[in-house]
Amino acid sequence: xxxxxEFSYTKADFARVAELxxxxxxxxxxxxxxQMVYSRLxxxxxxxxxxxxxxxxxxxxxxxxxxxxxxxxxxxxxxxTSFFREPHHFEAxxxxxxxxxxxxxxxxxxxxxxxxxxxxxxxxxxxxxxxACPAVQIIASDLDTHVLATAAQGVxxxxxxxxxxxxxxxxFFLKGAGINAGKVRAKKALREMIEFKQINxxxxxxxxxxxxxxxxxxxxxxxxxxxxxxxxxxxxxxxxKPNGTLYVGHSENLHFMxxxxxxxxxxxxxxxxxxxxARGKP
Length: 282
Ligand SMILES: C[S@@+](CC[C@H](N)C(=O)[O-])C[C@H]1O[C@@H](n2cnc3c(N)ncnc32)[C@H](O)[C@@H]1O
What we know:
Elements: H1 11-25, H2 34-48, H3 53-62, H4 68-76, H5 88-99, E1 105-109, H6 116-129, E2 136-142, H7 145-153, E3 155-157, H8 166-172, E4 173-175, E5 183-186, H9 188-191, E6 194-198, E7 212-217, H10 226-237, E8 240-248, E9 261-265, E10 268-271, H11 273-278
Parallel strand pairs: 1-2, 1-7, 2-6, 7-8
Antiparallel strand pairs: 3-5, 4-5, 8-10, 9-10
């Protein structure tokens, strides 16, 4: 470990961080993340005027209800996302919407990050139903409260929209002026389709009612080990309608859960008959 750090930081400190975030969020940090952890948490030590990682981590461990836990967690999540990321999923979703009479069509976006994904879902719904007010309900959740606040605001730097067609830019966003020049905001109709809430996928109970036609749980399971993924995927099965679809990220696959999920297209899955029978059973 380098010694030219502003704060004392040892291998044992890194191991402790890795253990704490694993217990809290299921996130696995391998040794290649040592420097990333230092730079992300150094900001917290600076803000709290604590001079060593060891003191910071002891204070956390001794105060399980401290608000600092949320800051610690927010600092260690990776929130990379973009509008219409993995575009084939939005095309598949539009087809799914057009092929079902479910009203409202219910979607849970389970790792929504800064909101680009749920707003892409809302745009897809408006386009698929050719309506400014489609019968679609979207619940967008994340563990990280900081990104959720950004998502609920729906304000983005203009260049985040670079890959969107002019029609989508004009149809779904308002350009900021004055101090908001260079920014855009998702239009009210788009924002009103989405309910934002904090959900930790690791929690034993998720504050969700009813079943969903589509669940987007993309690019988050890569941070979990397989045992954690299995627990989460079995719980997700309990929330899918019998013909519902689970959308996962490009590097995630559910081969190890083939008793529960069958492939329904490129990184999309539906429940097997076994899963439909088994889910919900104690
Ligand atoms: C890389 S982003 C993926 C965002 C989006 N789904 C996409 O594919 O573009 C991963 C997100 O998962 C969230 N996350 C990590 N651990 C989580 C957990 N235990 N429960 C809920 N969300 C979690 C992070 O805060 C982050 O915003």
